[in-house]
Amino acid sequence: MEKIKLQVSASQIQVVERPAAITAGTVGLEAEFSFDSHWDNLGKTVIFRAGDKVITAALEGNTHTVPWEVLEKPDLWLTVGVYGANPEGTVVIPTLWTKVAPVYTGVDPEGDPALEPSNPIWQQTLGRIANMEPQLSEHISNKANPHSVTCDQIGAVTQKEFRDAVSNLDGSSDPEQLIPHLFDRENPHGVTAAQAGAAPAGYGLGTKNSPSVRWNSARESGFYRADTDSPNGNWWWGITSSQHSGNNAQMAFCVAEGNIVEARRFCENSVWGEWEYVNPPMVAGVEYRTTERHNGKPVYVKYMDSAALKTTGSTNISVAEESVDIIEIKGYLTRDNDSGYFPLPYFYSGNTCAYIYAGYATEEGNTTVNITTTDAITTIVSGSQYTAHITVKYTKK
Q: Is residue 154 in a domain?
């Protein structure tokens, strides 16, 4: 079959050769393009038009089949145009339209099935990408410098330049002699922590406890073990963190009643504050200052056991020989004749209602917790069979 030949020069397109006649219904007519140097490195797209039918196609190589849709109707002119785009997709050169030839009326083959429509350009592009996938994958995985990039293009040194530079450093022409030194992790240059701006070994705290030092004298950052000036006079282990000798913080630990107990305190302007317990061991009758605060004041806690309660009336338990503000009372009762456990307040509801409850009072500077037994309880069981166990939290005035 004859073909259409077109010469494209910059934005001009000229018909060089064409069939003697192009008839409507022609299928498979080829259009061959040749381009001058203006079109180098550009992606080319050809547009075929006849009447109001326009078909756009990507041009691979220099030949493309004329879409049958533009040759479907007679008495129209077949016109062709091309445009070129750079890799970013920007159109660089669009040509003028050129008339190729008129489309004449041909024999109508009745009953011939309709042809599939030509794919739009986006579908053609997707098809080309899918066909290129194996080559793209092979190229991406190629680690053998497929583009022949040189050291000069990427600003790298050549092997000779590297060897010359190493030779200037130590007089050796063999860079491999430097490898052991480069990977020496034993500080071959003897750099100190101060030179590197790093913390010394143990982060400045040392690696062993400093024994037999009074806690009040343990002002340097480090680990310590001492009994003097400890929270309760026993041996405690702990840490001092020091800004300078006048401002310090201490955390100390000991084992009491089978539990690890923690206490803390601060020194400000060379004056030590009181030890405060994080988790006091709660030995009966011992007052503990805690890290807890109530209305900005330190909270103290104390656990106490009472004697046998009075049959009727109040049994007093001394909390402090001073006036304090009690903020919480918790407790329970135990009974002598069994293992009964009764939380306070204790209510008994039978033929007669009875109860035991806790309150507190301050008289003549002394603060006491009062465990009161009502008269009605004596008709059930003697109040003297009960013992109270009280935990009190309070702040000092």
A: no
Q: What is the pLDDT, as a whole number, of residue 213?
A: 75
Tell me, yes or no, whether 182 lies in a domain: no
H or E segment at 127? helix 121-140
Give the residue numbers spanning the domain of 308.
287-396
Instruction: Tally the domains of the chain.
Output: 3
143 contacts 150 by C-beta, under 8 angstroms = no
- On whether residue 197 sits in a domain, the answer given is no
Per cent of the chain over pLDDT 90 is: 43
How far the first Cα of the chain sits from its last, in Å, is: 115
Same domain, 309 and 364: yes
Amino acid (1-letter code) at residue 357: Y
The answer to whether residue 304 is domain-embedded is yes
In single-letter form, the type of residue at position 226 comes to A
Find, among 11, 67, 6, 56, the residue nearest to 33 by Cα.
Answer: 6
Order of strands across the sheet that contains 63-65? 12-17, 4-9, 30-35, 63-65
DSSP letter (8 states) at residue 37: G
Query: What confidence tens digit (pLDDT) does each residue in 86-120 have?
Result: 988 898 999 999 999 999 998 865 545 556 666 66
C-alpha 230 chain-centroid distance = 42
* Residue among 266, 267, 293, 288 nearest 277 (CA): 288
**Same structural domain, 226 and 344:** no
- Give 74's pLDDT tier (boundaries 50, 70, 90): very high
Same-domain pairing of 17 and 90: yes
For residue 254, what are the β-bridge partners? 261
Measuring CA to CA, which residue among 6, 26, 136, 114 is closest to residue 70? Answer: 26
> Which of 77-91, 301-315, 375-389 has the weakest average pLDDT?
375-389
